[in-house]
Amino acid sequence: MGQCGITSSKTVLVFLNLIFWAAAGILCYVGAYVFITYDDYDHFFEDVYTLIPAVTIIAVGGLLFIIGLIGCCATIRESRCGLITFVIILLLVFVTEVAVVVLGYIYRSKVEDEVNHSIQKVYNEYNGTNADASSRAIDYVQRQLHCCGIHTYSDWMNTRWFNEFQNNSVPVSCCKPNVSNCTGSLARPGDLYPEGCEALVVKKLKEIMMYVIWAALTFAAIQVFGMLSACVVLCRRSRDPAYELLMTGGTYA
Hints:
32% of the residues are buried. Helix 2 (52-77) runs antiparallel to helix 3. The protein starts with a helix and ends in a 14-residue tail after the last helix. The chain has helices at 2-41, 52-77, 80-124, 133-145, 160-165, 198-239. With 253 residues, the protein is mostly helical.
């Protein structure tokens, strides 16, 4: 019965190490996705530390690949030193992922304040040219999130761009995609997105942060199983003289 348990623990451990390799790729993908997406919205928040969870999760992803390699080699070769190293590194990564979850929740709660603080400034800097970064950011957000203005399309009437051009219109990025020949004229409000962008930007950024939080939580749970399996192997290896090698079927003296 005990021999069956130790063999099962080693088999699970090898399988988990293969999962760690897959997890490394997924975590790096999630971190890169957050970076790329935040780049499109970076004009709407000023705190660069908001990206700390994404940076950390990419680093954890790279470390998980190394952990998977160490774990597989240590399990197959029955290396006590390797398994101890594996457990220690896995524990450190687990603590790091817990920190990512905590930071994710902290910065997720700060997103709304960040956007509220900066969005008015961004809209005031809009000049309608593609060469201007703020203008590109606003046009991108309005098209992607199907919104117009801060709270509603009429907010454009309070911007410097609207007062300079005085053509009673908003940017064409406010136009609904199914409306042809839309010029952004306020005389035809039915052609424009009725919802403002502030709430949608906040919602989008919070969703992105939740991807990081759930990814960290999921793989932290997997790592707990990895640590438990490694500890079972280590304990039985020390106490059981008839310890069975996973690959050769021999015994450990």
